[in-house]
Amino acid sequence: MKINRFEDIIAWKIAKDLTIKIYQLMSSHKDYGFKDQIQRASVSIMNNIAEGFERKTNQEFRQFLYVAKGSCGEVRSMLLLMPELNYVDSQTAEELIAQAEIISKMLSNLIKTL
Question: pLDDT value at position 111?
Answer without folding.
Answer: 97
